[in-house]
Write a structure and sequence with these properties.
22% of the residues lie in helices and 32% in strands. It has a single domain, classed as SCP2 sterol-binding domain (Nonspecific Lipid-transfer Protein, Chain A, 2-Layer Sandwich), CATH 3.30.1050.10. The chain has a five-stranded mixed sheet. The longest helix is centred in the middle third of the chain and has 8 residues. It contains two helices and five strands, in the order E-E-E-E-H-E-H. By secondary structure, it is of the alpha+beta class.
């Protein structure tokens, strides 16, 4: 998943490996799903305080839903 902050210089890529472990890198890379929103809205989406409709979503929305449904994000 690619995250792009629209209000500041900030881009991140979140990857999930075969064991469902997450890694986050700062930078721009192509991903299966991308979100663009203000940095605060991105954080609130990741913490599930806002829904993804607060962002411009491009790509596979089912991957985004699967990510947000993870139990280990709390």
């Amino acid at each position: 998943m690619h995250l792009h902050a629209s209000d500041t210089e900030g881009e991140w890529v979140i990857r999930e490996d075969d064991d469902r472990r997450l890694s986050i890198i700062r930078g721009h890379e192509h991903a299966d799903v991308a979100l663009s929103a203000t940095s605060s809205d991105l954080l609130l989406i990741l913490y599930r305080r806002f829904g993804p409709e607060q962002a411009a979503v491009h790509g596979d929305r089912t991957l985004l839903s699967r990510f947000l449904d993870r139990n280990d994000l709390d």
